[in-house]
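Quiz preparation item.
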């Protein structure tokens, strides 16, 4: 497979109907690619944003702004969008993509942006048990939410917390079951996980740590959730225990994979002309020397834009600090960077207050930052991380100190 900018007889195929494919399509057209461009998605819906599914869309059902590639734009830009069809295999010798409807698309370059799916446990599959990954999932759950219901959430990650926030706003009673001792401890550490749990409890959520769910069954019209600490009754159950990368197309195509499709810093897979981006990509990051698979909106957008440019023949590495946000219980939480378990924590403000910032330090450099209602600090932290600026601990911990000065001094 070879690529060339501005070559009308070329075909690029973007596999996946989400954020990464959509950003790649827009980037390719903005960058001057005027060849054939095909987006393939296995959902019946045209590409749409996923972050609102656990936030405003779940609460209101307002789909305005949800669509990523409006039909008017794809018509104008001559982008073909195929929905409801799954790409099965990239056939490198033939230079194309095989679809499950029996068709074949010739391709000079392919982007695999197949995303991830909700992790499911067979023991938890029962009538009244919901998962949330797609728009159809959100529609089904929103149809059931109403005041007075008892909602049991399995999993205390950010999705679980956002679901708890929406359910409480709808007037439901919420019990959150978390297998770990502290929710979110694996993602942001025990101290910050406890701070987030306080937000949930203050909003009336019954947070139960160290609770492992073993089974769910319906009995006399009621859902019974069996745990290691007894049974919990529920009107409906929502499971949010992580996601599994949709890497099967890579495995079936002989492309290196393992907890995601493996790429280098240029988003290139082990097969020439095939790239990967978004939730499914397990990418090597030169700045840390580690391989990461990041499941966040911002990463999918930035990574896909780089992948698109490299499909056009550039050699641009993607090595940006990743960032995500969560809206819950009237608060905005943001995280940027990547912290190691050995990094030390420095808090700016008081974790008992309604706004604060926590910095993770690797030596004297900020590796990651997590903040509650402190977006300005996150903006500065992103640059501190990217530029690897050394900042005195006393500056980071002092709410009166100007973090911008650290950037200006550098």
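Solution:
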């Amino acid at each position: 497979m070879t690529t060339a900018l501005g070559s009308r007889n070329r075909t690029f195929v973007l596999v996946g109907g989400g954020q990464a494919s959509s950003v790649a399509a827009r980037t390719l057209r903005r960058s001057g690619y005027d060849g054939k461009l095909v987006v393939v998605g296995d959902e019946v819906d045209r590409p749409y944003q996923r972050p609102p599914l656990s936030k405003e869309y779940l609460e209101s059902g307002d789909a305005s702004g949800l669509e990523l590639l409006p039909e008017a734009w794809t018509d104008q830009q001559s982008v073909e969008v195929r929905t409801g069809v799954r790409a099965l295999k990239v056939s490198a010798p033939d230079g194309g993509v095989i679809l499950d409807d029996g068709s074949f698309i010739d391709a000079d370059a392919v982007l695999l942006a197949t995303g991830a799916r909700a992790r499911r446990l067979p023991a938890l599959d029962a009538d009244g048990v919901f998962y949330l990954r797609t728009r159809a999932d959100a529609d089904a759950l929103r149809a059931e939410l109403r005041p007075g219901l008892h909602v049991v959430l399995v999993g205390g990650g950010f999705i679980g917390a956002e679901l708890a926030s929406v359910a409480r706003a709808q007037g439901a009673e919420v019990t959150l079951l978390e297998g770990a001792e502290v929710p979110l401890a694996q993602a942001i550490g025990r101290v910050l996980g406890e701070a987030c749990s306080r937000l949930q409890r203050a909003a009336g959520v019954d947070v139960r740590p160290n609770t492992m769910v073993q089974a769910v069954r319906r009995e006399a019209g009621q859902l019974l959730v069996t745990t290691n600490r007894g049974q919990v009754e529920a009107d409906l159950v929502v499971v949010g225990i992580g996601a599994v990368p949709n890497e099967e197309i890579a495995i079936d195509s002989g492309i290196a994979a393992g907890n995601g499709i493996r790429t280098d810093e240029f988003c290139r897979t082990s097969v020439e002309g095939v790239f990967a981006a978004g939730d499914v990509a397990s990418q090597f990051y030169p700045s840390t020397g580690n391989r990461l698979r990041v499941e966040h909106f911002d990463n999918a957008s930035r990574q896909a834009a780089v992948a698109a440019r490299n499909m056009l023949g550039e050699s641009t590495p993607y090595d940006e600090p990743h960032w995500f946000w969560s809206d819950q219980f009237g608060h905005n939480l943001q995280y940027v960077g990547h912290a190691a378990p050995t990094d030390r924590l420095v808090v700016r403000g008081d974790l008992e207050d309604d706004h604060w910032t926590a910095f993770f330090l690797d030596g004297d450099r900020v590796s990651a930052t997590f903040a509650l209602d402190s977006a300005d600090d996150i903006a500065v932290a992103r640059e501190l991380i990217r530029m690897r600026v050394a900042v005195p601990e006393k500056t980071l911990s002092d709410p009166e100190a100007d973090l911008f000065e650290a950037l200006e001094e550098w």
